């Protein structure tokens, strides 16, 4: 991960004090920005975070967009709105706090992000409402050790931090160098909608909100059964006059029942319409459920505690990074769909794959090979004449594979093969563009291999064994 | 006179908290394997060795049902060699939320025995690599602990010095590594393997035919009429089904 902002999306953050006018202020944001998250409250204030690219394009540039947002929010009654745009959530949030002090939005270009982040005080890692949300006692200890700025933390070796503070130390280092933890991956949801008809039509906000509560609870039960949490929900309110006020509400951490009910209330108050005849929630995107606390270390089962004890002991023997668990993330590549996390006893249990999973385009279906090489081994795949087998732009092989040469065995005859299956990722980002062609090979001794061609070299990725 | 009654639910909960009850001397096995393993279950305190073309899949299949029933699994991999596949684990029935992977330096570096000992203390099932044998004294100590703790060790790819109580050895069950169907440009679908079950108490080893993996990545017995028609490359099938 580079430390200067190249890898991170440009994020807009705005913080303000609502002074009682929250629905109107939310309406301002909703009208300006297509997708945004409401941030956890801090002090008397609230905040919103959104990807900056879309709105900035609409306004021409980021500064114009930020100025417009601040002005409109202030016009809707927001006190001291501060807008900032910077790469990454942490820097953007910290800069929007600064922006509240001044009169102008703060825009941090990618090239200055590294310095700006290094200058941030270590306390931003634990300030309430901030994205990092680390334990304040960890921050206190860092400060007492003389590490006052994020740059000081970034200059340390992550191994030393982990050794001293465990997993929170690693997290502190990652935030300090700009390697933010990824947001949970959302996938398009299969059609899930719940609705409530009001007959006769209803005028009072509270009645509609009450029905919204019942709907949200019902949705919650359904989602939990699937192991998912909704991350984007469209709320539609139909009125007697045939109008429909529809808004898309998003939250990367998931919208649970209470959050949905709040949004029904804000939507009713912000975008007024006539008497309500229908309230509908449509789930547009979901992510895997996380944070089910019961049953984890010290939870219901004796087995959990025993395992936690063994994990702590082994981590003490060979290091925290050497004891890991899997967390579902999604992706096309067999080695990308799950990520490895340290099995630290303080983490909540990682979520597993959503059961209502839309198939990932380009993914290889089951059965899956049981031995993987995360760093694939270079090999040779040759045709009958001894030349390297190639794959052309149309995804066709130059010739049938006849031999495969791995580092250990000398050379094996290929008795059967299948593929190629092309995989192209991130074609819009030259630095990360990946083109791969995958093959399954069966050799004379009965082994089945999963290999791929990338950058004119064949690699052994996995063995079916 | 007032009679005090004891809530049976409380008694049950206390029993759970005290750990394994007296009659739970085994860990459950998936049906396909339960049909061929003596006792139809894994005996706690035992060592199982899995070998052959489908050794890793077998190891995961052996552990799968136990993890679904609440047991924890620790799987040891050596740094710089292969890694465990979470997808394959899920397909073979592992409850991934109860699986922990431990990555140790390759070979049997000093401290390797301590790591395995610590895992035996905490995990009902421990999968270990079997290619670099441990010293006999170490194995004796570990097995003693294993019997007390009531866990099961699964050794993959060799016996590793463990002197296993049960050996499952897999060989291909047909041409092309037993895979079918595999037309040109048709992906691998399922594989027939012959698994030889050799249990210390059983006498002669017995061979069975399985799909491992099936099309959805799990394990299933091949019906006896199809199995009978499979003639393995090395000798005939002693027992079908």
List keywords for this structure.
heterodimer; A: 465 residues; alpha+beta; B: 241 residues; alpha/beta; disordered C terminus
Q: What is the terminal separation of chain B in angstroms?
A: 63 Å
**How many strands in all of chain B?**
13
In percent, how helical is the residue content of chain A?
Answer: 25-40%
Question: Averaging pLDDT over every residue of chain B, what do you get?
Answer: 84
Largest sheet of chain A: 6 strands, antiparallel, barrel
The count of strands of chain A amounts to: 17
Instruction: Give the percentage of residues in beta strands of chain B.
Output: 25-35%
Oligomer: heterodimer
H/E element order of chain B: HEHEEHEEHEHEHEEEEEEH
The helicity of chain B comes to 25-40%
Question: Most extensive interface, residues per chain?
Answer: A-B, 56 and 63 residues
Output the radius of gyration of chain A. Answer: 26 Å
Percent of sequence in beta strands of chain A = 25-35%
**Separate helix tally of chain B:** 7
Low-confidence stretches of chain A: 291-300, 355-361
Describe the 3D structure:
The complex is a heterodimer of chains A (465) and B (241). Chain A is α+β, with helices and mostly antiparallel strands and 465 residues long. Chain A is built from twelve helices and 17 strands. Chain A is globular, with a radius of gyration of 26 Å. Chain A has a six-stranded antiparallel β-barrel with strand order 12-13-14-15-16-17. With 241 residues, chain B is α/β, with parallel strands linked by helices. Chain B is built from seven helices and 13 strands. In chain B, strand 7 (125-129), helix 6 (136-149) and strand 8 (152-156) form a beta-alpha-beta unit. Chain B has helices at 8-17, 31-34, 55-68, 86-91, 112-122, 136-149, 224-228; strands spanning 26-27, 42-43, 47-52, 73-78, 83-84, 99-104, 125-129, 152-156, 166-172, 179-180, 190-199, 206-211, 220-221. Chains A and B meet through helix 12, strand 10, strand 12, strand 14 and strand 15 of A and helix 3, strand 5, helix 4, strand 6 and helix 5 of B.
């Amino acid at each position: 991960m580079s430390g200067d902002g190249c890898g991170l999306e440009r994020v807009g953050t705005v913080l303000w004090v609502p002074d009682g006018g929250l629905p109107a202020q939310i309406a301002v944001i909703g009208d300006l920005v297509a997708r945004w998250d409401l941030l956890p409250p801090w002090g008397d204030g609230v905040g919103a975070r959104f990807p900056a690219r879309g709105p900035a394009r609409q306004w021409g540039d980021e500064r114009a967009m930020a100025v417009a947002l601040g002005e409109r929010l202030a016009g809707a009654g927001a006190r001291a709105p501060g807008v900032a745009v910077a790469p990454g959530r942490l820097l953007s949030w910290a800069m929007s706090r600064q922006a509240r002090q001044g009169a102008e939005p703060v825009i941090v270009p990618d090239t200055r992000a590294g310095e700006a982040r290094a200058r941030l005080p270590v306390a931003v890692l634990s300030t309430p409402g901030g994205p990092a949300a680390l334990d304040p006692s960890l921050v206190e200890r860092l400060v007492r050790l003389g590490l006052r700025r994020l740059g000081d933390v970034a200059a340390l070796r992550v191994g030393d931090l982990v050794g001293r503070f465990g997993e929170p130390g690693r997290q502190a280092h990652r935030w300090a160098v700009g390697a933010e933890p990824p947001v949970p991956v959302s996938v398009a949801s299969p059609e899930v909608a719940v609705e409530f008809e009001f007959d006769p039509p209803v005028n009072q906000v509270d009645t509609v909100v009450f029905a919204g509560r019942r709907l949200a609870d019902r949705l919650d039960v359904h989602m939990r059964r699937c192991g998912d949490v909704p991350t984007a929900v469209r709320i539609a309110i139909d009125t007697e006059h045939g109008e429909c006020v529809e808004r898309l509400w998003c939250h990367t951490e998931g919208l649970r029942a209470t959050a949905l009910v709040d949004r029904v209330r804000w939507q009713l108050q912000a975008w007024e319409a006539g008497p309500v005849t229908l309230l509908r929630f449509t789930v547009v995107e979901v992510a895997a459920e996380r944070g089910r606390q019961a049953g984890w270390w010290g939870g219901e089962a004796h087995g959990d505690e025993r395992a936690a004890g063994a994990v702590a002991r082994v981590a003490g023997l060979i290091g925290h990074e050497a004891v890991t668990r899997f967390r579902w993330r999604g992706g096309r590549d067999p080695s990308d769909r799950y990520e490895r996390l340290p099995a630290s006893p303080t983490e909540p249990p990682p979520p597993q794959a959503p059961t209502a999973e839309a198939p990932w385009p380009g993914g290889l279906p089951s059965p899956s090979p049981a031995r993987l090489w995360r760093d694939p081994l270079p090999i040779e795949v040759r045709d009958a004449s001894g030349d390297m087998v190639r794959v052309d732009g149309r995804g066709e092989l130059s010739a049938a594979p006849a031999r495969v040469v791995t580092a250990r065995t000398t050379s094996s005859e290929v008795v059967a093969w299948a593929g190629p299956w092309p995989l192209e990722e991130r074609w819009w980002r030259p630095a990360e563009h990946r083109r791969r062609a995958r093959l399954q090979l069966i050799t004379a001794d009965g082994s089945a291999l999963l290999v791929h061609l990338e950058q004119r070299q064949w690699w052994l990725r996995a063995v079916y064994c | 006179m007032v009679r005090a009654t004891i809530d049976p639910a409380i008694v049950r909960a206390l029993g759970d908290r005290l750990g394994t009850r007296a009659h739970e001397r085994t860990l459950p096995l998936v049906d396909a394997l339960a049909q061929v393993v003596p006792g139809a279950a894994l005996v706690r305190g035992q060592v199982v060795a899995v070998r052959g073309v489908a050794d890793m899949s077998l190891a995961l299949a052996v552990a799968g049902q136990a993890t679904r029933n609440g047991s924890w699994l620790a799987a040891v991999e050596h740094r710089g060699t292969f890694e465990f596949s979470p997808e394959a684990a899920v397909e073979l029935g592992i409850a991934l939320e109860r699986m922990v992977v431990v990555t140790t330096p390759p070979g049997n570096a000093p401290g390797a025995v301590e790591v395995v000992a610590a895992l035996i203390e905490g995990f009902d099932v421990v999968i270990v690599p079997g290619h670099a044998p441990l010293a006999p004294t170490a194995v004796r100590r570990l097995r003693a602990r294993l019997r007390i703790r009531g866990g099961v060790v699964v050794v993959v790819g060799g016996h590793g010095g463990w002197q296993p109580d049960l050996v499952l050895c897999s060989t291909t069950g047909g041409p092309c590594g037993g895979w079918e169907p595999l037309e040109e440009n048709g992906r691998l679908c399922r594989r027939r393997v012959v698994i030889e079950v050799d249990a210390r108490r059983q006498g002669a080893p017995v061979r069975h035919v399985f799909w491992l993996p099936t099309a959805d990545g799990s394990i299933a017995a091949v019906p006896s009429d199809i199995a009978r028609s499979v003639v393995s490359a090395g000798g005939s099938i002693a027992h079908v089904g």
